[in-house]
């Protein structure tokens, strides 16, 4: 039976395979996340024991082809993200960092040797990855990053025996304190055909055991408490010549990965909103005031209707983007539209759901306020409302208003 928030029978638009994927992930969340998520959130604990189970579930890099990855469709990945975030944004964020960022960077931009070395073990969860782009002074403007990489040739000159040396700092890097490998983006001074030099952003595969790599969790947090975000310091980190990702130098490299993560957010936010709505609905149907179930009051029904309408519209947007992505027709501004809209409405739904729960809604016995707190982070990362608004403004007007 579909959710009461599905006002248009959107389940009928999904294939049997898509429904099976959704239901399999939903069962996992019901069994392994819901019973403990309140405690994990309260204790600021990420359940690392779930990592190999998520690998076995097939959701780590599930939209990637080959190298032990599941090769599922964009819609299936979206449905998985939606169900994971219905459990908690922190769990979906881990899957996103692992698959859409770290694994995607290697899959899109890495050498064959890098893919063979890392991707199969990342797909099973044996190896955990992180993605280092954001810096203390460079969030929405990654072009202003100050992390640098320089190449020191070997004794014979050229690449043989040479090393890359990385120096800099990154911030808000998910899972970095327990990751086995980090994808670090840094500026490299590269010669041009005319004899000049210019900075280019390049990606590097950095085993986190490398001397000079340090990751410290950012604490305390009011959001994403069942997840880990870190400050990363790179102090003379030395890497072999083949640590560089050979494909797509420039910011197009990390941006392609960010688009994958943003796409997952479009779906994930719907899951959080739906879970908050269902929690509020169940409470309203069971709690009586003035001799009447709270769900029987007109003002409460108005809130429930407004929430269901927004969730249904957000689900339509997510499904449309998924179909476009599977058809190879998804464009960047479309992802911005989905991320901006769905993260924004999800927070509003969760806050409204909390009001139906009354004072009980501020406890961790109920999910809406936890979801709302998490969504403050989801709304910010992978592009703030302001950035996505300007992306859409540029698409509509043809004029970039970023500077």
TrEMBL record:
Q: Has UniProt tagged this entry with the keyword Flavoprotein? A: yes
**Its annotated pathway?**
Amino-acid metabolism; lysine degradation; Amino-acid metabolism; tryptophan metabolism
Its family remark reads:
Belongs to the acyl-CoA dehydrogenase family.
Regions that span the bilayer: none
Which of the seven top EC classes does this enzyme belong to?
oxidoreductase
* Substrates-to-products reaction catalysed: glutaryl-CoA + oxidized [electron-transfer flavoprotein] + 2 H(+) = (2E)-butenoyl-CoA + reduced [electron-transfer flavoprotein] + CO2
EC numbers:
1.3.8.6
Residue ranges of domain Acyl-CoA dehydrogenase/oxidase C-terminal in the record: 257-396
> Native species of this protein?
Promicromonospora sukumoe
Recorded hits in InterPro entries, A to Z, give: Acyl-CoA_DH_CS, Acyl-CoA_Oxase/DH_mid-dom, Acyl-CoA_Oxase/DH_mid-dom_sf, AcylCo_DH-like_C, AcylCo_DH/oxidase_C, AcylCoA_DH/ox_N, AcylCoA_DH/ox_N_sf, AcylCoA_DH/oxidase_NM_dom_sf
Give every Acyl-CoA oxidase/dehydrogenase middle domain span. Answer: 130-237
* Boundaries of every Acyl-CoA dehydrogenase/oxidase N-terminal domain copy: 16-126
Question: Could you confirm whether the keyword Flavoprotein appears in this record?
Answer: yes
Question: Which Pfam families does the annotation name?
Answer: Acyl-CoA_dh_1, Acyl-CoA_dh_M, Acyl-CoA_dh_N
Q: Which GO terms describe its biological process?
A: fatty acid beta-oxidation using acyl-CoA dehydrogenase; fatty-acyl-CoA biosynthetic process
Q: Which UniProt keywords apply?
A: FAD, Flavoprotein, Oxidoreductase, Transit peptide
The protein here is known as glutaryl-CoA dehydrogenase (ETF)
Q: Which cofactor does it need?
A: FAD
Query: Annotated Gene Ontology MF terms?
Result: fatty-acyl-CoA binding; flavin adenine dinucleotide binding; glutaryl-CoA dehydrogenase activity
């Amino acid at each position: 039976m579909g959710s009461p928030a599905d006002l248009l029978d959107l389940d009928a638009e999904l294939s049997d395979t898509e429904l099976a994927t959704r239901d399999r992930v939903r069962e996992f969340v019901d069994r392994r996340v819901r019973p403990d998520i309140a405690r994990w959130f309260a204790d600021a604990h990420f359940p690392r024991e779930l990592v190999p189970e998520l690998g076995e579930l097939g959701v780590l890099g599930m939209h990637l082809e080959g190298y032990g990855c599941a090769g599922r469709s964009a819609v299936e990945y979206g449905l998985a993200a939606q169900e994971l975030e219905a459990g908690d944004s922190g769990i979906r964020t881990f899957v996103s960092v692992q698959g859409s960022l770290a694994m995607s960077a290697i899959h899109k931009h890495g050498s064959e040797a890098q893919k063979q070395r890392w991707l199969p073990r990342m797909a099973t969860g044996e190896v955990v990855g992180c993605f280092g782009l954001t810096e203390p002074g460079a969030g929405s403007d990654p072009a202003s990053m100050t992390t640098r990489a320089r190449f020191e040739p070997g004794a014979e000159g050229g690449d043989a025996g040479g090393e890359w040396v990385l120096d800099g700092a990154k911030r808000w890097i998910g899972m970095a304190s327990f990751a086995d490998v980090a994808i670090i983006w840094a500026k490299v001074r590269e010669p041009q055909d005319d004899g000049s030099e210019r900075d280019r952003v390049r990606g590097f595969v950095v085993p986190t055991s490398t001397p000079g790599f340090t990751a410290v969790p950012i604490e305390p947090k009011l959001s994403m408490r069942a997840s880990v975000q870190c400050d990363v310091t790179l102090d003379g980190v030395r890497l072999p010549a083949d640590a560089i990702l050979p494909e797509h130098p420039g910011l197009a490299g990390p941006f392609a990965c960010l688009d994958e993560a943003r796409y997952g957010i479009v779906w994930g936010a719907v899951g959080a909103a739906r879970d908050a709505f269902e929690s509020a609905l169940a409470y309203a149907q069971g709690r009586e005031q003035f001799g009447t179930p709270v769900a029987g009051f007109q003002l409460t029904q108005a809130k429930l209707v407004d929430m269901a309408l927004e969730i249904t519209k957000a689900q339509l947007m997510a499904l449309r983007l998924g179909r476009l992505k599977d058809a190879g027709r998804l464009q960047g501004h479309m992802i911005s539209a989905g991320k901006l809209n769905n993260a924004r409405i999800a927070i509003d739904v969760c806050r409204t759901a909390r009001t139906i729960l009354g004072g009980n809604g501020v406890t961790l016995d109920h999910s809406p306020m936890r979801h709302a707190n998490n969504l403050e982070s989801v709304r910010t990362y992978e592009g703030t409302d302001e950035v996505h608004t300007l992306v859409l403004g540029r698409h509509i007007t043809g004029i970039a208003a970023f500077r």
